[in-house]
Amino acid sequence: FMEKWAKERELRKEFAPYEDQQWELESELKELETTAGNAATNNTNFRTTIWTGPYSQMTLMCIPVCSDIGVEIHKENDQIIRIEQGNALVKLGKCKERLDLCYTVQKGDTIFIPAGNWHNIINVGRMALKLSSIYSPAHHKPGTIHITKEDAKKE
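The structure corresponding to this sequence follows.
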């Protein structure tokens, strides 16, 4: 028992700097976790980039009633979208003119959009549609904010 304990203690000394870095990362992620949920429902911008890492990115969107994100494709980015508030119609397809897959979604639902698929999300509810989106790899410049859909089209 004592030999095993001594070996574990030596290993911990060897990896101590990494444990400190891990704790710092866990602390940062916990802070992000606790603020992302509220940030999504409080966001009033069409798009707000809240976090960008080396391999992924998180954005928040606010889509007004009777509006949409616009038909788009990300050829090199997978995208995961979570509905934080409201109701939407999701359309997906391999061709811009044929978005044949249609789904209705609501708060708590998640949509997985593989790279290379055309898609659109339409707000069909009676309130602003709030969503969070994860891109992998990152799609927008870190810190990007588009107040309106028109601002996003300029990029």
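Confidence is low (pLDDT under 50) at residues 11-23.
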